[in-house]
């Protein structure tokens, strides 16, 4: 058996018999304290869930659900797809009741359905059975199975809660008029092994939030940390009756559970508690049971066999009869207590007694007897032992204290059986008289153990339980969006390393499944949830919970979709030229293959395949006729096939006669020459075949919108003057054979090249060929296309609890291609991760974003997409927060009514939400009208309102709404109309209890008396003092409709007297009287005199003071003073008489005496003092002292203790000290490096009894040097010096 278990058993057996019943301790609870707390079932948003239903084909199926709260948005799904209201599906919502009706059910409807509310999701199935063939059957059998909603509710099982009567006959809960309890927990009784539940009910109608409830055993043991196998705590809230119910369930009770318990309930400003007792009875035993069965060993041979509560069994008369087999009258035998016999018997008789009374388990009996004897043995070493257990918060300190009988006794402290050694400041051992104290500092979980205090051979046991502080989430989770199959990693950071957290998905706790779907990881304070391969089913809200916080994030898993940003295009190239096929896809990780006429292309020295980012290229150098074919690119894993054709341009050279006019052969390109499209950033190479003899001159021109031409040519023979006649007057001719835009000339063709096409290169280009025979020209339009410009920042509108509407405008430039759609992203404001909200392009300019978390600030941005690709992101939208209107105000009532006013009050809404509360709007409506009129201008932030200027006699309805950023809440309405008419009420003064006796105040104090009253209409109030009308100049009076206040800023003696307050309404009055007594310090006593002097005694007499300060004189204080020193010493205080005798005076001295008077205010300001001193004469001969020459004691200063060189650390105050003597007392000067320090505030000088000290406040290296102390008097001077070094800490 483990050491700790032995300690627990010993303490259980010994302490339970020695301590009072109420202080007994449930050790089993403490043994379970380290077991992990069972996971609490996730709270569902549904109070009624739809169930799987089987219906016949062609009939109608109805599914019903009820939510805990009204106004919750509920969604219905079919096979993971949201269901909308249609002819097939009818969706209804009334308050908190929701239903889905499926008409004309068929086999296609036999799938899985789900209903979603918030983070709760409930799945159910619809099973469809084929209708039976038409055979003559009974009508009952022919009818189809009823729908789920038509089935009768199953009867409630009787064993669920047999004590609760039906709802209609349930008696009303008793109301506790004193405290918070509606029903207090009652005393209970249970047998060993049985279960019992204690219930406490608290009225929640007047509470703003849920009360805090604690359960205790005895005086101090908090049972919240003992929840486990034998103890469960439950609570719920009845919204109809507005009652909180708290339950403590004890499971499989044993005898140690008996004792006193306490239930404490507290709110913000109230507290209540209730005590109750638990009685645990022994299990019933049959009368014919043989006592030997209780002590018979089990067949398993366990060491603890026979360890039952034998003392209770042995005391039963049916088992305590002597074994007399032949005596038929054994029933009349008297009861015998076997334990009492065993206690008194010597050990040699134990076996005989066991045999006589049929005890076969002698070993078990001896162990039990040994424990009982130990219990009876009184401790001789300890006066006070350790408590059974202690509890401390982690990081705090605790003291374990015992009292020993011998003050000189040595004690040893053990932890789990090992002696505790002194180590730093962790353990502190103290011995104060008979007390021995062990202090444990900075308690950790390692200190949760069993402790012993050992004195000689005796021990005192206890257990220490360390409670962990709440673990906070310092860095929350972030939303994520991934593709199917990708790895997901949620990360959060908590306040403590290695903390235990709980992960949930849609309210259901996550565990390590057999397939290792989820992986949990800890790294210091960081906690990770990893999903290796995500699927569509993994989408949802993921929650991480600690005992001090919650964080929620959303995961969206989308199917993989590949978008083609740029497809490959057909090419026409000439021999030995380069052909490049290029395409761009959305995923840079996607690989693919190139096909030529359906066969895979194998790269070589001439054919190269490249993949850089999202761009895939096939490059063919030195094109030959054999390269002419259909080329395709197929992305791996996707059903895409991007195809293009390579055409080989064969230039045929025919014989032409001389002087052939020039000709541009654009028709041989095989395509329309009107417009050539090039993607921005790509290279444009335009080959234009030409002919002519002699070789024509080529001129390239760009025609601007204004008619201007930009000329580009590579002919050096041309000059601007030769061609200027063919151009407009403001044109400019350029000759460029190199650069980004250039022209290359060959015999049979010319090439126009643009490297890295830009938007400015777009336009109409004209090529002109000339020779002496003639000329030819052609216009070619070049169009440069690009990705669109980024749109402007989107605008957010229609913000709700978890949704909003996003609006945006098209980009100013679409890149030359129509915009195909838009991509929307969002992120939390404090996050850096943007999450894509759609994978299918949005065609519209608005989008409703959903599934956001209320109270979190988000931002949105938008991308525009055309056939070329995706634009840069737009600027982020203005930050916004999804919020919902609050719920309606509660407890809306009428507080008061007069002829023209109505006073209303209410309480804040139960749910305010993240949007806060801006205020309330109050409206009223006349009875019979439907028009509501604002009762107050604008909003009010108070929870009460006084509506004025109403018409007397009107019947009005009132309502109030809560307002925040999201809008108005529902209205709280007064059900019955309120008649604007004041009700007569008799005047009544409610005099506070402290004013029913004399009110005593001191002079100068403030008097503020508030007296509440009632009465309608507003009563007339009058104050009287001693029968006279009260002077309003001397006393301030303020009256309201509910109270009157008497205010005196500074009380004087003349304010004392009897005050009367009178209320009058017509002929009805009410009057109360108040007595005020103003007191002041008394005057001094009068006529003090020395009545007699004899020996060492003086008799004094005086009379009471003339002014008693309006209060009774409580006594006198008598003081004496020696004439030499005139220092006063108190002889008597609180002395009641007006005469006294002062004794023990010193012979030869003269004394003065004075007397103070005293009342409630204190001592009098002055005292009565004797005019003449009292001389205490000496007895015997008179001594005449001899005359001596006065000795000169003066001497020059001399240092008796020198200054010592010092080395100190910078930043810490330091002192320099020395000692000096000299008569008269020398004057002291301090110097640093010969500079006087008298006026420097950094230094402080002290001198006490010749010890001189210089304090240097927080020295720096600059303060180092030589310090000198100089002492000077009229006889001479002395100096002493030391060196001070100031070091900087490393």
From TrEMBL:
Keywords from the UniProt entry: Actin-binding, Cell adhesion, Immunoglobulin domain, Muscle protein, Phosphoprotein, Repeat, Thick filament
Domain Ig-like: 171-286, 377-455, 469-563, 662-781, 987-1075, 1197-1281
One Pfam family here: fn3
GO biological process: one example: sarcomere organization
GO CC terms, sorted: cardiac myofibril; M band; striated muscle myosin thick filament
Ranges for region Disordered: 129-181
Stored InterPro entries: FN3_dom, FN3_sf, Ig-like_dom, Ig-like_dom_sf, Ig-like_fold, Ig_I-set, Ig_sub, Ig_sub2
Superkingdom of origin: Eukaryota
PROSITE patterns: FN3, IG_LIKE
SMART domains: FN3 (SM00060), IG (SM00409), IGc2 (SM00408)
GO MF entry, a single one: structural constituent of muscle
Keyword match Isomerase: no
Segment forming the signal sequence: none
Phosphoprotein listed as a keyword: yes
Biased composition (Low complexity): 136-151
Gene3D superfamilies per the UniProt record, alphabetical: Immunoglobulins (2.60.40.10)
Occurrences of domain Fibronectin type-III (ranges): 790-886, 888-983, 1084-1179
Family in the record: Belongs to the immunoglobulin superfamily. MyBP family.
Protein name stated in the entry: Myosin-binding protein C, cardiac-type
């Amino acid at each position: 058996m483990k050491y700790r278990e032995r300690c627990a058993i010993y303490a259980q057996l010994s302490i339970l018999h020695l301590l009072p019943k109420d202080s007994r301790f449930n050790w089993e609870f403490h043994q379970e304290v380290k077991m992990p707390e069972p996971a609490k079932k996730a709270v569902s948003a549904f109070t009624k869930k739809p169930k799987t239903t089987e219906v016949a084909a062609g009939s109608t199926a109805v599914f019903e659900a009820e939510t805990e709260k009204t106004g919750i948005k509920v969604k219905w799904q079919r096979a993971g797809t949201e269901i909308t209201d249609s002819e097939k599906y009818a969706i209804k919502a009334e308050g908190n009741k929701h239903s889905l009706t499926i008409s004309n059910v068929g086999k296609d409807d036999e799938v899985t359905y789900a209903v979603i509310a918030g983070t709760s999701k409930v799945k159910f199935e619809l099973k469809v059975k084929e209708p039976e063939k038409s055979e003559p059957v009974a009508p009952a059998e022919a009818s189809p199975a009823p729908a789920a909603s038509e089935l009768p509710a199953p009867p409630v099982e009787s064993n669920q809660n047999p004590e609760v009567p039906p709802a209609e006959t349930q008696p009303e809960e008793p109301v506790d008029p004193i405290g918070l309890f509606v029903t207090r927990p009652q005393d209970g009784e249970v047998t060993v092994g049985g279960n019992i539940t204690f219930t406490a009910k608290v009225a929640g109608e007047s509470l703003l939030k849920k009360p805090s409830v604690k359960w205790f055993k005895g005086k101090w043991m908090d049972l919240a940390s003992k929840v486990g196998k034998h103890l469960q705590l439950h609570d719920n809230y009845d919204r109809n009756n507005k009652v909180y119910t708290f339950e403590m369930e004890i499971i499989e009770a044993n005898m140690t559970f008996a004792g006193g318990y306490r239930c404490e309930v507290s709110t913000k400003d109230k507290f209540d508690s209730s005590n109750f007792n638990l009685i645990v009875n022994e299990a019933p035993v049959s009368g014919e049971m043989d006592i030997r069965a209780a002590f018979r060993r089990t067949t398993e041979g366990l060491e603890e066999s026979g360890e039952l509560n034998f003392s209770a069994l042995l005391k039963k008369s049916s088992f305590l009869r002597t074994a007399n087999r032949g005596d038929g009258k054994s029933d009349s035998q008297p009861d015998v207590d076997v334990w009492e016999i065993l206690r008194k018997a010597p050990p040699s008789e134990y076996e005989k007694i066991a045999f006589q009374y049929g005890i076969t388990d002698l070993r078990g009996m001896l162990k039990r007897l040994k424990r009982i004897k130990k219990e009876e043995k009184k401790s001789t070493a300890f006066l006070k032992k350790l408590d059974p257990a202690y509890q401390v918060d982690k990081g705090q300190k605790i003291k374990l204290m015992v009292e020993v009988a011998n003050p000189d006794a040595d004690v040893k402290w053990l932890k789990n059986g090992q002696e505790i050694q002194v180590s730093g400041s962790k353990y502190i051992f103290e011995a104060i008289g008979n007390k021995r104290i062990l202090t444990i500092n900075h308690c950790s979980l390692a200190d949760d153990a069993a402790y012993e205090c050992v004195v000689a051979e005796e021990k005192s046991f206890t257990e220490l339980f360390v409670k962990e502080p709440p673990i906070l989430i310092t860095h929350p989770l972030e939303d994520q969006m991934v593709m199917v199959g990708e790895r997901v990693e949620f990360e959060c950071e908590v306040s403590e390393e290695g903390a235990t957290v709980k992960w949930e998905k849609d309210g259901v706790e996550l565990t390590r499944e057999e397939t290792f779907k989820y992986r949990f990881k800890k790294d210091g304070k960081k906690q990770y949830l990893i999903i290796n391969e995500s699927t569509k089913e993994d989408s949802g809200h993921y929650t991480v919970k600690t005992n001090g916080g919650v964080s929620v994030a959303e995961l969206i898993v989308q199917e993989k979709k590949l978008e083609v940003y740029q497809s490959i295009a057909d090419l026409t190239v000439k021999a030995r030229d380069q052909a490049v096929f290029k395409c761009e896809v959305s995923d840079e990780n996607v690989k693919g293959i190139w096909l030529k006429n359906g066969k895979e292309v194998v790269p070589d020295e001439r054919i190269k395949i490249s993949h850089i980012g999202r761009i895939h290229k096939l490059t063919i150098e030195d094109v030959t006729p054999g390269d002419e074919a259909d080329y395709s690119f197929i992305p791996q894993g996707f059903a895409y096939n991007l195809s293009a054709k390579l055409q080989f341009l064969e230039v045929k050279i025919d014989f032409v006669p001389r002087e052939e006019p020039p000709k541009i052969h654009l028709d041989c390109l095989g395509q329309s020459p009107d417009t050539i499209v090039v993607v921005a950033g790509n290279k444009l190479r335009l080959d234009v075949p030409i002919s002519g003899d002699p070789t024509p001159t080529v001129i390239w021109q760009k025609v601007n919108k204004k008619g201007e031409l930009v000329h580009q040519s590579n002919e050096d023979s041309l000059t601007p003057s030769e061609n200027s006649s063919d151009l407009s007057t403001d044109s400019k001719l350029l000759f460029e054979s190199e650069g980004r835009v250039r022209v290359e000339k060959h015999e049979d063709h010319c090439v126009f090249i643009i490297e890295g096409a830009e938007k400015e290169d777009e336009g109409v280009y004209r090529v002109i060929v000339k020779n002496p025979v003639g000329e030819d020209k052609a216009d070619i339009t070049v169009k440069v296309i690009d990705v669109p410009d980024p749109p402007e920042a989107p605008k957010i509108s229609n913000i709700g609890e978890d949704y909003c509407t996003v609006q945006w405008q098209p980009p100013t430039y679409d890149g030359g291609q129509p915009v195909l759609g838009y991509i929307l992203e969002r992120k939390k404001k404090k996050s850096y991760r943007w999450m894509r909200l759609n994978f299918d392009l949005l065609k519209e300019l608005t989008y409703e974003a959903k599934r956001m978390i209320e109270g979190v600030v988000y931002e949105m941005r938008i991308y525009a997409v055309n056939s070329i690709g995706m634009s840069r992101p737009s600027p982020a939208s203005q930050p916004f927060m999804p919020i919902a209107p609050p719920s309606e105000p509660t407890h809306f009532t009428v507080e008061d009514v007069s002829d023209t006013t109505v006073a209303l009050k209410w309480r804040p809404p139960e749910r305010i939400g993240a949007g806060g509360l801006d205020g309330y709007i109050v409206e009223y409506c006349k009875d019979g009208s439907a028009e509501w009129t604002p009762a107050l201008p604008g909003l009010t932030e108070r929870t009460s309102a006084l509506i004025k200027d109403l018409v007397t006699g009107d019947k009005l309805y009132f309502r109030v709404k809560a307002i925040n950023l999201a809008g108005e809440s529902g209205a709280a309405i007064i059900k019955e109309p309120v008649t604007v008419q004041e009700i007569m009420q008799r005047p009544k003064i409610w005099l506070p209890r402290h004013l029913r006796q004399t009110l005593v105040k001191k002079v100068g104090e403030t008097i503020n008396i508030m007296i509440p009253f009632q009465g309608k209409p507003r009563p007339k109030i009058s104050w009287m003092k001693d029968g006279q009308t009260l002077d309003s100049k001397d006393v301030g009076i303020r009256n309201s409709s509910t109270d009157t206040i008497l205010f005196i800023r500074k009380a004087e003696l003349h304010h004392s007297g009897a005050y009367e307050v009178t209320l009058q309404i017509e002929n009805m009055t009410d009057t109360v009287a108040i007595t005020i007594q103003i007191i002041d310090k008394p005057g001094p006593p009068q006529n003090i005199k020395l009545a007699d002097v004899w020996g060492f005694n003086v008799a004094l007499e005086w009379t009471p003071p003339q002014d008693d300060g309006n209060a009774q004189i409580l006594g006198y204080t008598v003081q004496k003073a020696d004439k030499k020193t005139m220092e006063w010493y108190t002889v008597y205080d609180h002395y009641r008489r007006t005469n006294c005798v002062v004794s023990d005076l010193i012979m030869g001295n003269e004394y003065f005496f004075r007397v103070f008077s005293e009342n409630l205010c204190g001592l009098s300001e002055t005292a009565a003092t004797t005019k003449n001193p009292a001389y205490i004469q000496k007895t015997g001969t008179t001594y005449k002292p001899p005359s001596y020459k006065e000795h000169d004691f003066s001497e020059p200063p001399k240092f008796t203790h020198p200054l010592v060189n010092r080395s100190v650390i910078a930043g810490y105050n330091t002192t320099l000290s020395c000692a000096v003597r000299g008569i008269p007392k020398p004057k002291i000067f301090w110097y640093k490096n010969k500079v006087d320090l008298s006026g420097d505030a950094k230094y402080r000088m002290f001198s006490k009894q010749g010890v001189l000290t210089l304090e240097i406040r927080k020295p720096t290296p600059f303060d180092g040097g030589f310090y000198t102390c100089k002492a000077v008097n009229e006889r001479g001077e002395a100096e002493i010096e030391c060196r001070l070094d100031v070091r900087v800490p490393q």
